[in-house]
Amino acid sequence: MPCEHPRRVARVVPTVGTLVLLSALPAGALEAGKPVSQFSLAAWQIDAGLPHNLVQGIAQTPDGYLWLATQEGLARFDGVRFAVFDRRTTAAMSANDVETIYVTRDGSLWVGVYGGRLLRYQDGAFRSYSSREGLSSATISALTEDAHGDLWIGTDGDGLYRFHDEAFTRFTEKDGLIDDSIRCLIGDREGGVWIGTPSGLGHRAGAFESFRLPPQERPTAVSALAIDATGRLWIGTDGDGIYRLAGGRLVPDRVALRDSHVRALRGDRQGSVWIGTDRGLHRVHDGRVEVLTRADGIGSDSIRAVFEDREGSLWVGGIGLVQIKDGTAITYGRAQGLADEDVYTVAAAPGRGLWVGTSGGEVALFARDRFTPVAGRAVLFGATVLALCEDRAGRLWVGTDHGLYALFRGRWTTYGPREGLPPHDVRSILEDREGRLWVGTDGGGLARLEGRRFVALTTAEGLPSDHLRALLEDRDGTLWIATYGGLAALRGGRFTSYTARDGLAHDLVRSLHLDARGVLWVGTYGGGLSRVEAGRITTYTTRQGLFDDVIFEILEDGRGRLWMSCNKGIFSVSIADLDDMAAGRRDSVRSVAYGRSDGMRSPEANGGSPAGWRADDGRLWFATAAGLVAIDPAAVARTRAAPPAIIEEVWVDGERQDPSRGLDLPPGNHRLQFAYTALSLLAPDHLRFSYALESFDAGWIDADRRRQTSYTNVPAGRYRFRVRVRDEDGPWNEAGAPLPLRVHAHWYRTSAFFVIAGGALLLAFAGVYRLRVQGLLARERELDRRVREALADVKVLSGLIPICASCKKIRDDRGYWNQLEQYIGEHSQAAFSHGICPDCINRLYPEMAEKVARRSG
After folding, report:
1. Residue 97: inside a domain, yes or no?
2. Domain encompassing residue 706
């Protein structure tokens, strides 16, 4: 087979749509058949925001928040941030030491606080119950709800209480209770309540029953209770392991625990039972016991609380908080038989499994989830395995930093300079379709095996560099060579080179992949990814959305995505998006990255050849610094919808507000701060956010992973703050409820002010106009009076008006002088005398006209 590369606290009010979407989230669980060592673990302590490292209780409210009981207050967790409720921030908290917490079916969170105070958190507010309501002042040690909806409260020395119809009823040893000191409680399916005490096990179902522990050399107690998926009651004791109830008696159930002090019990939906002790967390399934300890990453061997959330993750409280979940990536390493977990290369072992090579010189066959080291591997002592290839004959070729080795039928053969192989690291090995073996070296160029000897091809024959990293043969027989001087193609015995000058992403080429259509993909060290088709090269980098510019391996999943490994993890990109960018239909791509939180023990991948392999079952395998990693694209493709966004907290000018009521702000410039989230605890780091202040922002603003933002200088007006969320490669969920917001205007900027001011201005203009008109009329009357007085004494107006005495023609006045004469005649006794116009002089007095002409001439 060819070896090729293929307080009144900020209240969160879920909408109906929110609840529907939350209920639609996957209800998976930790796969019972998977070793506990392959689960993904994440841990949080004080430095991550936890108020105290001792986590004594864990619960989840219907909105999706995880709640934690600690000695320094109650903590709420959204998968990224902790919000702390203590005496300083919450008036109802009488003490910071929270002993126990429980969520009832109506969604209420019940909190038992040291000193006898019981708190109920509902609809964003805390309510306190104490001795004034009939509860004792003894410390509350346990809480549970029965099938009828009644809350049961266990105390440390003051008996058992039932809370029904807002009233407390107390039960003590006088009423048949086995012991007044309660350690643990659990409700059963029939409506009864099981009670764990220092004296044994009690049960209440209308009446009390008692089941005493057998006599012990040392005092013990029933310290934890759980009911598994089959309905069986598990009874944990403080010093004598697990008990079960048989024939009305408590009998030991000899589960092979590392420690007999049981601190916590929890049954999961897959039928497993998790047991927390002082020496680790145990899982029991079908009689098989596995354990996780501090060495495995659970933070502490002392376990105090275990809880399964609605998405299937297991949460463990002890010294810190730990999440255990089924990750996208599954890591195989030392627990499966691999002595050296620094895997450099992985290749196919046809019909048997996978070959794996490590930095410590280990070569192993991986099959049925176990590693089997090859025989005689001592020959590789001190070497780093850099390349692997099994040829058609079944010979395993092993490239190392010490040269080339072959394993065939249990015998090792070494190849070096005596066989014509350049004395350099062997970085890549390929058997072509004609059965010829090609070897790429780091400094000695390309070597081809002919018979028993190698023939070297170097820069002298046209290679761009003698430092090779990967080899690939395409459909027409062209040999593609990844070098540290660019990409080379060997056709018909001639080399053709492609470098950064030709558009290649970088001259340091690390990996090659030919997709199902014949498009060549080229991964580089530091330059990103290049696409080569019909001589045209398109390059993609982090500036266009690639997760990293270092690419060790490229695999195609058969589902439309390319998967790549790098120093920061493993990531995938849609081939359609890459094609669209090459065609100019888009200017960026979207990467989905996977790392430690997805199951990789180290995000650092390695760059052997090949550094990854696609198995026949479709799973993708990658070489990493902490083991062999498997990802099943079919499982990843079942992408869940992102949960709706929730606006958690709002601050105005540094003061916290209640977002459930919207914001109604006085006039002025305010600093607005918003904190938002989306409640998925399974993969919160894969969620992406964008937000908009409608009527202020022009569109959605990309927040990436950020869960808070702020605004200043928002002018007066009405707005809505909205947040939407998506999974890394999923659609946007815009179902989150918006926050209405109003900023009032100053009185001199309100519409009422403008109406009043406008009216006043109009009245002012009208008053001024009226005064003006009145003034003008008064002046007109005064002028008329004066004219009358002046004309009363005028008798003759000689030559005043240019009217001819003979023809009565007025000179160039358009009749205005006639009007003036008429007016004066009507208002006075004046008589008019007129001159004669030139035309009448010529006609009536020709001699006089001639004399006048001679004088003027």
Report:
1. no
2. 645-749
Strands (E), 543-626: 553-556, 561-566, 569-574, 591-594, 612-614, 620-624
Let me know whether 516 and 530 are in one domain: yes
Helix (H) or strand (E) run with residue 384 in it = none
Q: Are 272 and 284 in contact (CB under 8 A)?
A: yes
Going from the C-alpha of 180 to that of each of 156, 198, 222, the distances in angstroms are: 7, 9, 13
Contact criterion met (CB below 8 Å) for 259 and 238: no
Residues 722 and 797 in one domain: no
CA angle 343, 348, 349 (to 5 degrees): 105
For the purposes of burial, counting CB atoms within 10 Å of the CB of 816, is it exposed (0-12), middle (13-18) or buried (19 or more)? exposed
**3-state per-residue secondary structure call for 263-319:** EEEEECCCCCEEEEECCEEEEEECCEEEEECHHHCCCCCCCCEEEECCCCCEEEEEE
Q: What whole-number distance in Å separates Cα of residue 278 and Cα of residue 304?
A: 9
Strand pairing partners for 838?
none
Strand order, beta sheet including 160-164: 140-145, 151-155, 160-164, 167-171
Q: Return d(Cα 185, Cα 254) in angstroms, integer.
A: 23
CA distance 499 to 95: 69
CATH number at residue 665: 2.60.40.10
- 820 shares a domain with 754: no
- How far is the CA of 134 from the CAs of 178, 667, 681, in angstroms? 22, 48, 38
Q: Phi and psi at residue 523, in whole multiples of 5°?
A: -95, 140
Taking the chain (857 residues) in consecutive chunks of 10 residues, what is each chunk's mean pLDDT?
42 38 51 91 96 98 97 97 95 93 98 93 94 91 97 97 96 97 96 96 96 79 96 95 91 92 96 97 95 92 97 96 94 94 97 96 96 88 96 97 95 95 96 97 97 95 98 96 98 95 97 96 98 95 97 97 98 97 96 93 96 97 98 80 92 90 91 96 93 96 95 95 92 93 79 69 78 80 71 51 59 57 61 62 65 55
What tokens does 244 get?
Answer: 């079960």
Report the number of distinct structural domains present in the chain: 4
- Spatial distance between the Cα atoms of 605 and 41, rounded to a whole number of angstroms: 19
